[in-house]
Write a structure and sequence with these properties.
Strand order of the largest sheet: 3-2-1-4-5-6-7
Distance between the termini: 9 Å
Strand content: 15-25%
Low-confidence stretches: 206-210
Number of helices: 7
CATH class: Alpha Beta
Order of helices and strands: EHEHEHEHEHEEHEHE
Number of domains: 1
Helix content: 25-40%
Structural class: alpha/beta
CATH superfamily: Formyl transferase, N-terminal domain
Mean pLDDT: 93
Shape: globular
Bound molecules: 5-O-phosphono-beta-D-ribofuranosylamine
CATH architecture: 3-Layer(aba) Sandwich
CATH topology: Rossmann fold
């Protein structure tokens, strides 16, 4: 982003406590993330994250997944809300729904997730418990582009923390979460600075009429990310 260009508009999807949302709000207030949160969307009206959003005077929308017959119809409703708020980059911050190509096509290479493990190890739910059960000595978090799989998209950045003797799930969760709060705003600033370059390593199956940008990840091509040098 140059000094005069408008800030990146982020849409944040949440289902839970919203500590990562708070980290984004705080980073924007501090000026370390030069972006604007256009809307916070939750599938659950009870999500604590929405209280944080309201306290920061951010627009809040609830889109109940149960009110939609299919994942695709739910995603279409999300896209409508995100587009209406001028969103250019979508962040899944503790959003407990799998997204479909409907969302991915609307925001090509601009849907980001944060996961509390060093992917590709321990995708899915209870990543910290999986790490403890396996007995790894290093755990951490991953920020990655979202594709149609489960925590399987191209990795943008990772940060590691030690697993200490005597750790339980809660202790490890808290140590990882502190790293998440640093890493996510840092990666989002790369998007704000237009430094994230995405190339397809493999070709997705072709569709009649050709593919638009972003169709590759929506259809399952393997992507590789490069972070350009700061200008
Ligand atoms: C985080 O651990 C994140 O990595 C995972 O869900 C959790 C969300 O926490 N995807 P919060 O709602 O941001 O506090």
């Amino acid at each position: 982003m140059t000094v005069n260009s408008p800030p990146l508009v982020i849409g944040v999807l949440v289902s839970g406590a919203g500590s990562n949302l708070q980290a984004m709000i705080d980073a924007i207030e501090r000026g370390t993330l030069r972006a604007r949160i256009g809307v916070v969307v939750s599938n659950l009206a009870s999500a604590k994250a929405l209280d944080r959003a309201r306290a920061a005077r951010l627009p809040v929308v609830v889109v109940d997944h149960k009110a939609h017959a299919t994942r695709e119809a739910f995603d279409a409703a999300l896209v409508e809300v995100l587009e209406a708020h001028g969103v250019r980059c979508v962040v899944l911050a503790g959003f407990m729904r799998l997204v479909t190509p409907v969302l991915l096509r609307a925001f090509p290479h601009r849907v980001v997730n944060i996961h509390p493990a060093l992917l590709p190890a321990f995708p899915g739910l209870h990543a910290q418990a999986q790490a403890l059960a396996y007995g790894v000595r290093l755990a951490g978090c991953t920020v990655h582009l979202v594709d149609a799989g489960m925590d399987s998209g191209a990795i943008l950045a990772q940060a590691a923390v030690p697993v200490l003797d005597g750790d339980d799930e809660e202790a490890l969760r808290a140590r990882i979460l502190a790293k998440e709060h640093e890493l996510l705003p840092e990666v989002l600033q790369w998007f704000a600075d237009d430094r994230v370059e995405v190339t397809a390593l493999s070709t997705a199956s072709s569709t009649p009429g050709g593919r638009s940008e972003g169709e590759d990840s929506a259809l399952g091509a393997r992507l590789r990310v490069r972070i350009a040098r700061a200008r």
